[in-house]
Design a protein that fits this description.
heterodimer; A: about 110 residues; mainly beta; 4-stranded antiparallel beta sheet; B: about 120 residues; about 0% helix
Chain lengths: ~110, ~120
């Protein structure tokens, strides 16, 4: 099975900061990689699919990149509503989610 | 407006059963695969099961294989998760989510707010 790791596990940032989250797969998953945002008590929300395709309605400050085993989610200018936990998910094998990266206020 | 709403959660004793439901609206339910995903307290998201649009193909995570059964009633626009032989580590918020297929890949585009299942004596 494909194993997913994310780093960092948590980070503190300020509004306006550029934030980068990385996700690594244990084997080549091509671009079968999605990113989700999850806030407590809310439904998770897809941000990016196929590693770099922005879901309709998602602000352009979010972007995804990578292929193979290494992937990145970037928030170009962090907004107050972006404080949340972010998960990557591989859909090449067993639909495994990464362990998550919590983004909170510095 | 696309909406999925989970129900059926509650407190159940270890070894007992529980059935979750997910009511869908705002889209042609019979055209989409559907998933169950869960989140244990303080933990991350864990995919649980998927059922194809026609209800024929079903796949499960190893952690629930043989104990959980996913099903659907397209005439009622409803997804189900029958959970048997429940264990303490099944305690989680359970979400249903709609499957979107693109090219050779897939993602989950519409999620519910979840229903909490607590397995405890």
């Amino acid at each position: 099975d494909v194993q997913m790791t994310q780093s960092p596990s948590s980070l503190s940032a300020s509004v306006g900061d550029r934030v980068t989250i990385t996700c690594q797969a244990s084997q080549n998953i091509n671009t079968h990689l999605n990113w989700y945002q999850h806030k407590p008590g809310k439904a998770p929300k897809v941000l990016v699919y196929a590693a770099s395709s922005l879901q309709s309605g998602v602000p352009s400050r979010f972007s995804g990149s990578g292929s193979g085993t290494d992937f990145t989610l970037t928030i170009s200018s962090l907004q107050p509503e972006d404080f949340a936990t972010y998960y990557c998910q591989e859909t090449f094998n067993t639909l495994t989610f990464g362990p998550g990266t919590k983004v909170d206020i510095k | 407006q696309i909406q999925v709403v989970e129900s059926g959660g509650g407190v159940v004793q270890p070894g007992k059963s529980l059935r979750l439901s997910c009511a869908a609206s705002g889209f042609t339910f019979s055209s989409f695969g559907m998933h169950w995903v869960r989140q244990a307290p303080g933990k991350g998201l864990e995919w649980v099961a998927v059922i194809w649009y026609n209800g024929i193909n079903k796949y499960y995570a190893d952690s629930v294989q043989g104990r959980f059964t996913i099903s659907r009633d397209n005439s009622k626009n409803t997804l189900y998760l029958q959970m048997d032989s429940l264990r303490a580590d099944d305690t989680a918020v359970y979400y249903c989510a709609r499957d979107i297929i693109y090219g050779s890949g897939t993602y989950f585009d519409s999620w519910g707010q979840g229903t909490l299942v607590t397995v405890s004596s």
